[in-house]
Amino acid sequence: MTAARRWILAMAAALMTAGCSSSPDAAPPTSAPVSPSPSASTPRASATSASPFCLNLSLFQMGVIAYSAEVGAAIDGEPLDFEELRRKAALIADTGEPMQASAPPDIAEEFHTVLKAIDTSVSSLESGANAHDVLDPVYGERNRPAFEAVENYDCGGEDR
């Protein structure tokens, strides 16, 4: 089984346990509800469901969330798994690069910011690296709104 397939299966399992299944029998998440941004509930007229951006958006969002969560462990003083972070960042880049050309105008800038921030974060990984240099591109005030916009973006497809 390839690393990419293991990652996809892990993300699918994480979503299922988090209550993000489209099954009508799925239990709601047990954590506090997150209030969606206005952009999360508004379908995008400029995005087509068949565009590479929309077709790969869910996978990209899962990757970004997984990377952010792993980097965020450093906030609690947990050690970072450099190899795993590099692997996740490479998968995010491989998924995101082809999406850029078809990114809708209302999210294109934020999408580019997220790709660049993850690249900046992962490039700071080295032995003895300062945790701030790895965390700041993902959790810093400058980029956080872009991460939230991308994580909450919806191309408007009903069958997603």
Q: Provide the residue-averaged pLDDT.
A: 77
The outline comes out as elongated
Oligomer: single chain
**Relative helix content:** 55-70%
Catalogue the unreliable spans.
1-10, 12-46
Counting DSSP H or I runs of 4 or more residues, the number of helices is 7
- What is the number of E strands? 0
Helices and strands, in N-to-C order? HHHHHHH
Determine the N-to-C terminus distance: 26 Å
Structural class: mainly alpha
Tell me about the largest β-sheet.
none
Keywords for this structure?
single chain, 160 residues, mainly alpha, 7 helices, 0% strand, elongated, disordered N terminus
Care to describe what's here?
By secondary structure, the protein is mainly alpha-helical. It contains seven helices and no strands. Helix 3 packs across helix 7, helix 4 packs antiparallel against helix 5 and helix 5 packs across helix 7. It is elongated, with a radius of gyration of 16 Å. The two termini are 26 Å apart. The N terminus is likely disordered.
